[in-house]
Amino acid sequence: MSESSTAKRPPTIDDVLRLRAAEPVPPADGEAAAGEAAGDADGGAAPTRIVEIARLAGVSPITVSRALRQPEKVAEAKRRKILEIVERTGYATNPHARALRSGQSNIVAAFVSNLQSQQFCLAVQGCGEVLEPQGYQLMIGQTSYSYAKETTMIQSLREMRPAAVMFTGVIEIEENRRALRALGIPIMETWAYPRDPIDMLVGFSNIDGGRLAAEHFAGRGYRRVAFIGRRSGRGALRLTGFREGARAAGLDIVAELSVDRVGSMLDGRRALGELLARNTAVEAVFCANDLLAAGALLEARRLGMRLPDDIAILGFGHNDVAEELPPGLTTIGIDSRDLGRQAGSLILQRMRGETPDEPTRAVELTLTRRGSS
Amino acid sequence: MSESSTAKRPPTIDDVLRLRAAEPVPPADGEAAAGEAAGDADGGAAPTRIVEIARLAGVSPITVSRALRQPEKVAEAKRRKILEIVERTGYATNPHARALRSGQSNIVAAFVSNLQSQQFCLAVQGCGEVLEPQGYQLMIGQTSYSYAKETTMIQSLREMRPAAVMFTGVIEIEENRRALRALGIPIMETWAYPRDPIDMLVGFSNIDGGRLAAEHFAGRGYRRVAFIGRRSGRGALRLTGFREGARAAGLDIVAELSVDRVGSMLDGRRALGELLARNTAVEAVFCANDLLAAGALLEARRLGMRLPDDIAILGFGHNDVAEELPPGLTTIGIDSRDLGRQAGSLILQRMRGETPDEPTRAVELTLTRRGSS
DNA sequence: TTGTAGGCGTTATCAA
DNA sequence: TTGATAACGCCTACAA
């Protein structure tokens, strides 16, 4: 994009001004409190142990514990008094002591393939919305689409001892699947629809997504179509479905271009350039994700093509920035936040010892048509 | 963007196909292992207590503990043997027991203003890169630019008892600042340069950023300039600097448009439309963040304006998707991942009981010029 | 350099 | 419905 060079992909920097940010030098103040172990703040230090509450309430510690965890087992009056004291003093249970004794952590680990992905983050947010009000905390990690990293993270789960784990994806490596099962905690996979989820699943069929893309193209009257995407993971599934759909509808797949990275507009741009250079008279392109599609769309327009007449572009993933690009990107996707919420509520049920009657769920894929197709 | 309607902001959906994703129904398998407490997996269950390692190594538990935490205090041979056994058996320390006894958690809480922000996520990733190899785990929360949410989260920190906290922002509310100090743990603020950080800071001056914007416009010969951004938080600081710089350079600020949301292309688009409707003969617009700038840029081009001749646009934040938009967005920003790394290493020092000699650091602001200015 | 004794704060278990 | 007792697994303090 930089300058007018079109070949160079890493956007060259035309002009860089450097400025050492220097507001009037701040005194290295504020150090006072931090660093010490037990900051005692403003006098009214909150109690740190359950016995202190017990003393104030005139009951035994275990009763306070019950009032907090199983309120129904404590007499109305006592319970009210205890909770009032807890509230007033700002007492907070020590989660480490609790986890140690009960074997129940309040941490739920969430692994995203890529923290930069809007949709994955939305799913995690949705999951957090359900779990946090119940006192659980999400610990977020990134697998970076790397099996090695995934394996490392799963190892570290053994140390972390979370109450449950969720992934924005499915675990393919058998060894990792075994390791996860061995944790003996609820496991949530998402974003695909494998036959044999490890434990619970809120997913959708990427193959169906690809098929839907082909059907959409067929319905709009395009016949010469192409695919841009990764050849592994979900990209491969979307391609599989796209091929099936194309065959069924009698479309010609004139090219399948593979890219290495996920979420790269530049790769999409380059791939479209390459596709056009092949002179395949392609009419419509399905990109396995929205950022690739955004790159392709920008490149097409840069070359003076009109969408969708000269070429149609279809993305995947409901990325709202990409979809804003004129003339609007048609895209297939799911409601990621809702997926996250569903995942969260299943996890919650499982953590409570209930048995969800439907531990494997499918969410709806939708195609949103805009100007690009 | 939808259809050809230009007024409606929430992109209308032209056409929605629904498809119940239905791969061949998967057997609700995989349930087997999960749900139970102590999954005993494949026979070779890893030891869960330090005594088991001690027994295998023929030493006392405390020696194993030392070999793990303070290896230099254990004789070479014993240490090697112990670590070999730990490695081989896959023993993992129970973090809860450890935290309970030592008072040292291995959890670092990180709060981002918005999980959807590429730059904030990058900073968190950078911080994690430094902390994770040292055995710390990042727990990520979102404050949603809401003081109320911020207060709630800070409350929950009392329960969580992390080893340190980092924010992609600074804490303004005095009550929250007090509450944080009272935690007695290292606190890291970022993304601004206040005079009185709570504890540690890796930041930059948003005022300088605004000033830099004005200077850039002056240098390029624009005189009639405008601002689009929030009137609170960092947006307000950037505006302050922009005003100062404009005054110093003799520029006319012909308009200051405020938006309510952060990270909204639509708001940027609308604001630019409004600005142009005012007929102020504006030559250059500084948008307080890149997504606003992207919206403004798209709107300008939709109206057939050429950049930068008809209008120049300057963003803030180094968002790489926004900056890809033709003709390339000029933007001011920092290296967020590096900021995160610096923050991480300061936090690390503090957690180790060292006293960083420079607990308040400034990172470099850079202006990257592309086609839009 | 290694070990012994004991407690961190909570909750499971059993008894009243 | 409430309480006494003990134990979760580790590490601090002190001793050898």
From TrEMBL, chains A, B:
Source domain of life: Bacteria
Basic and acidic residues: compositionally biased ranges: 11-21
Residues annotated as domain HTH lacI-type: 48-102
Biased composition (Low complexity): 28-43
Tagged with keyword Transcription regulation: yes
Listed GO MF terms: DNA binding
Matching Pfam families: LacI, Peripla_BP_3
Keyword Ribosomal protein: no
Keyword terms, alphabetized: DNA-binding, Transcription, Transcription regulation
PROSITE patterns (UniProt xref): HTH_LACI_1 (PS00356), HTH_LACI_2 (PS50932)
SMART domains: HTH_LACI (SM00354)
Disordered: annotated segments: 1-43
Protein name: LacI family DNA-binding transcriptional regulator
Species this protein is from: Azospirillum endophyticum
Organism taxonomic ancestry: Bacteria, Pseudomonadati, Pseudomonadota, Alphaproteobacteria, Rhodospirillales
